[in-house]
């Protein structure tokens, strides 16, 4: 049974014992830890909660390795593909010419600089591509991750692998991504074509994106507790 729930500015109604990150980071609690946070990126509070748990020898969701991997788009896609998740092809480069040769237009571009939020940019023209790559790569000091745009680009909130969309393929992808990376709260970026859906990215949730009904859903999942560490 899980005994510690660490919540980052998220007030939940659950029977599971709950502490704030500030309390946990100043403690030496020895128990299973579920780290519930809206942002697990490196050097964010969610990351440090998992790091502190690992230093204490606690079993924790998510691990710091999964935190780092899930938010780096190429690693996310490689690990997911190895587990059978349909993913979008990608190219790591700082060359607009190579992107056009490989994928044509339109394309999706994620910055890979450690100083940027991995927010995607949809690019439909050659001139915009050259300007965007220069900006996103910090004048070609870093590479970007480029992906072809196949169809409709959608995002869905995922809470322990559950999402509210009606599409069964999207629901299945959210479940499988959670099984691989164990990121409790996140936003999945997915491309939907005529015949398939493809994982193309993962981002943190803004606090204002988490609704009252989302709080209720998260609380119920945690109160049940079954399968979260499986």
Account of the 3D structure:
It is a single chain. The chain is of the alpha/beta class and 230 residues long. Among the domains are: 4-68, no CATH class; 91-148, Dna Ligase, domain 1, CATH 3.30.1490. Helices cover 35% and strands 22% of the residues. The chain is built from eight helices and eleven strands. It has helices spanning 21-25, 45-55, 64-71, 73-82, 96-103, 126-136, 168-181, 212-224; strands at residues 4-7, 18-19, 33-36, 60-61, 91-93, 107-111, 121-123, 144-148, 152-159, 185-192, 197-203. A four-stranded parallel β-sheet has the order 2-1-3-4. A four-stranded antiparallel β-sheet has the order 5-8-6-7, with helices on one face. A three-stranded antiparallel β-sheet has the order 9-10-11. The protein is globular and about 55 Å long.
């Amino acid at each position: 049974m899980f005994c510690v729930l660490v919540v980052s500015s998220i007030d939940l109604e659950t029977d599971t014992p709950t502490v704030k990150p500030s309390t946990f980071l100043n403690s030496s609690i020895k128990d299973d830890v579920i780290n519930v946070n809206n942002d697990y990126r490196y050097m964010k509070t969610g990351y440090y909660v998992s790091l502190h748990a690992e230093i204490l020898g606690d079993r924790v969701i998510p691990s710091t390795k999964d935190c780092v991997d899930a938010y780096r788009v190429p690693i996310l896609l490689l690990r997911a593909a190895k587990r059978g998740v349909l993913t979008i092809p990608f190219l790591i480069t700082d060359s607009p010419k190579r992107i056009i040769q490989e994928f044509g237009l339109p394309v999706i571009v994620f910055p890979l600089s450690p100083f940027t939020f991995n927010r995607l940019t949809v690019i439909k023209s050659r001139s915009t591509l050259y300007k965007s790559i220069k900006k996103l790569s910090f004048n070609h000091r870093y590479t970007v991750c480029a992906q072809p745009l196949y169809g409709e680009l959608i995002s869905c909130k995922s809470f322990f692998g559950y999402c509210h969309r009606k599409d069964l393929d999207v629901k299945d992808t959210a479940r499988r991504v959670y099984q691989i990376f164990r990121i409790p709260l996140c936003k999945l970026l997915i491309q939907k074509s005529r015949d398939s859906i493809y994982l193309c990215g993962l981002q943190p949730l803004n606090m204002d994106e988490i609704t009252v009904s989302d709080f209720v859903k998260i609380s119920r999942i945690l109160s049940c507790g079954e399968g979260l560490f499986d």
